[in-house]
Fold these 4 entries.
Entry 1:
Amino acid sequence: MSLTDEERNILVQLEYEKGVAFMEQAEKIAELGYWDMVANRLYYAVFHAVTALLISDGHKVGTHKGVVLLFGQHYIKTGVFSITEGRLYSQLQTMREKADYVCTFQTSQEEIVPMLVPAKEMIKKIGNILFQVRA
């Protein structure tokens, strides 16, 4: 099923807004010190922003791993995003999976806090790309 331009724009907007909302949730949850939940929200914040970017450029998104691969192929390898930003996304995915599914794994403040600002900056950068292109 292909999307019309209007449908694509709406979907991009909704995905990006979800990413921004999840970033805000991550920051609020961090104040409470629930680091596994922060890892979850941080990952999903970046995931939804990246998904918005991929959809905006006409890529078909499916699985979480597929989104990571497409992001690497179309935005890291081409220099739109840095290798450091790509690593951050991959680290967030791994941390979220462990925090959600491995009962012996716990994230910590020391692991999560250094990721908050870079994740927020990455989401903002995606927003700048998305809404500059459409302007």
Entry 2:
Amino acid sequence: MNRIIIEDIVCYAYHGVLPEEIKIGQEFRVSIELGVDFSGLNDDRIDQATDYRQAVKIVEEIMQGKPCRLLETLACRIADKLLSLPKVEETTVEVCKPNPPLPGVQGGVSVLINRRKQH
């Protein structure tokens, strides 16, 4: 399967379990991988391809949308919506909270999920 990879889409959003996470908000980083069918791309035309600007827009809309308590919920919402893009057969989504309110955690907390289109 061919891949389109978009790394570190930075969003400031209001998700989390703690009240201050929802009130104050924080930075999130989302990376996505799209498994795409590239067959038929002979003319170098955007209308024949998956426009990855749409994928970034989906991520931003979901991150700015209804608050979620769990990173898992965010990742699932993003993945499900990405599967609606033309030629996308599979997606992997990583949602990272780079500065979680956890003492001692320096590298952030991430959730990584994978979804495939059901035929």
Entry 3:
Amino acid sequence: MPVQHWLTRYHTGVASIDQLHDELFDRMDRVYTDIINKSGAALVSKQVGELADKLIEHLDEEEGEMRASGYAEIEPHIANHRALRTQLAALKKRANAGGNVGTDALDALNQYFTTHIKQFDLPWAKTLAK
């Protein structure tokens, strides 16, 4: 049973973006579940690293698509990505060092990610649809 629930109101209408977002939330679910089930620091660290890597890959793809489409609001969007990259790097570093990665860290990431989708991805998707 998913810990986090992906809401269709966060769908952008761009199938490739929505598929990646769904996958990222599924990955967060797995990490939450393993933390709650006390599956061990090694597994949680591995999954946090994979989640961070996949999210960074997604950000790179998104930025490439924005550049290719000539998106006018690209700079604030990329600035928001930089902040997310910083948060991901800190989380990954903590996990790799054997630090405690609790649900609080993922709650913050989840909140950031959903806010990013609402404030940045949905407006960008609307321009793609035109």
Entry 4:
Amino acid sequence: MPYSMTGWGTHRIPKFTANLKGLNSKYKEVVLHLPQEFFEAEPFIYKFLNDSVTRGRVDLFVNLDKNNLKKHVVVDEDLFKEAHSSMKKLMAKVRIKGEIPVQTVLNSVDGIITVKDAEARDTYSWKKIKPVIEAAFKDFMKMKEKEAEGHIKDIGIRLALIEKEAANIAVMHEEFKEEYIKKTRERLETILARENRQGFLNTEAVEVLDKYNITEELVRISSHVKQALSIIKNDAVGRKLDFLAQEFYREANTIGSKINNAKIAHAVIVIKENTEKIREQALNLE
């Protein structure tokens, strides 16, 4: 199943929301953005995501919904008494009469009244968190699969164009050979006729043409196209496609360096342009 490295997935429950974001990367990276309550579950979350992806960066963002969490109020009576007493002493010292409002004490000293998490201890255990992470990941993979469809479709189009241009080069190469033999014979016949070395002429022409033989390059391009088509139909692994794209480029360069022909040179450029597009799309695939 082909998957893009980019995508977004989310799942929400009353207590928290899990969001997954995928980005392009040559390597596999899992980055967690978790609240402190998830500290104990963090290793399990990391392992789950690390085992589930093959390439690309995956960021997990978990946001607690504070309004839906159980809480209880804690009052530090000793701190309140100490603060109130200190304020009374201060007022007496500066000769200010009157009572000290409770709100003044509360506003002046932090920690007298605090609101703490009253959730059950296992609320953030891996057992409770796992279904939410799995649901977000399922949504994430669904989008990655949809994104990959566009990449695969474009790669298929590029492969068809490369195959077409390789076939055109094969035809043009035959025309090139015939034209080369004709021109070579015309140039050398005059020189060699006087020495009666026609056999030498035919031998040399064949040997020189061997340097312009691109049969192997065309066969390899055809083989690479078949391999690439097999990959996009089965696993669409980005690294494999990227490797084959480099091979297309190498074979096209070899053909261009061997054959000095305008039409073939143009076909080589078309192959290289489509190869670059395939590499761009391969970089988006896991």
